Amino acid sequence: MTIVSSSMPRVLEIGKQFTFEAAHTLHREIETDSSLRIHGHSYRVEVVLRGGVDPDSGMLMDLGLLQRKMNAVRDALDHRLLDEVPGLAPATMENIALFIWRHLAPDLPALAEVSVFRDTLGERCTCRGA
């Protein structure tokens, strides 16, 4: 028997991360020479779901199912030249976050946030749902 109290949270968040390695070029206003050459980064992505607990499963979503959805988008990015990934260019962190969102959102109605990190550079981009 599940006891629901008015003091219990009604909205929960769960998150899962994945990493990928990829190369790209980038047209910038500064550091143009090094950015125009093909160069690579290690990326970390966090996907966050927000919602209530399903009373039957006791979960917002089975993390194994979430992993399967994330694997498909990871495979589209990992060890790729991002300039050549359809629907992504230019391969900025902002566009990578939006690309991942567009691929996950149709199957994940609880999708709340996608963050893309380049940890070695201390950089992050996050997009959030409404």
From TrEMBL:
<keyword id="KW-0479">Metal-binding</keyword>
<dbReference type="InterPro" id="IPR038418">
    <property type="entry name" value="6-PTP_synth/QueD_sf"/>
</dbReference>
<keyword id="KW-0456">Lyase</keyword>
<keyword id="KW-0862">Zinc</keyword>
<feature type="binding site">
    <location>
        <position position="41"/>
    </location>
    <ligand>
        <name>Zn(2+)</name>
    </ligand>
</feature>
<comment type="function">
    <text>Catalyzes the conversion of 7,8-dihydroneopterin triphosphate (H2NTP) to 6-carboxy-5,6,7,8-tetrahydropterin (CPH4) and acetaldehyde.</text>
</comment>
<comment type="similarity">
    <text>Belongs to the PTPS family. QueD subfamily.</text>
</comment>
<feature type="binding site">
    <location>
        <position position="39"/>
    </location>
    <ligand>
        <name>Zn(2+)</name>
    </ligand>
</feature>
<protein>
    <recommendedName>
        <fullName>6-carboxy-5,6,7,8-tetrahydropterin synthase</fullName>
        <ecNumber>4.-.-.-</ecNumber>
    </recommendedName>
</protein>
<dbReference type="GO" id="GO:0008616">
    <property type="term" value="P:tRNA queuosine(34) biosynthetic process"/>
</dbReference>
<keyword id="KW-0671">Queuosine biosynthesis</keyword>
<dbReference type="GO" id="GO:0070497">
    <property type="term" value="F:6-carboxytetrahydropterin synthase activity"/>
</dbReference>
<comment type="pathway">
    <text>Purine metabolism; 7-cyano-7-deazaguanine biosynthesis.</text>
</comment>
<feature type="binding site">
    <location>
        <position position="24"/>
    </location>
    <ligand>
        <name>Zn(2+)</name>
    </ligand>
</feature>
<dbReference type="GO" id="GO:0046872">
    <property type="term" value="F:metal ion binding"/>
</dbReference>
<dbReference type="Pfam" id="PF01242">
    <property type="entry name" value="PTPS"/>
</dbReference>
<dbReference type="InterPro" id="IPR007115">
    <property type="entry name" value="6-PTP_synth/QueD"/>
</dbReference>
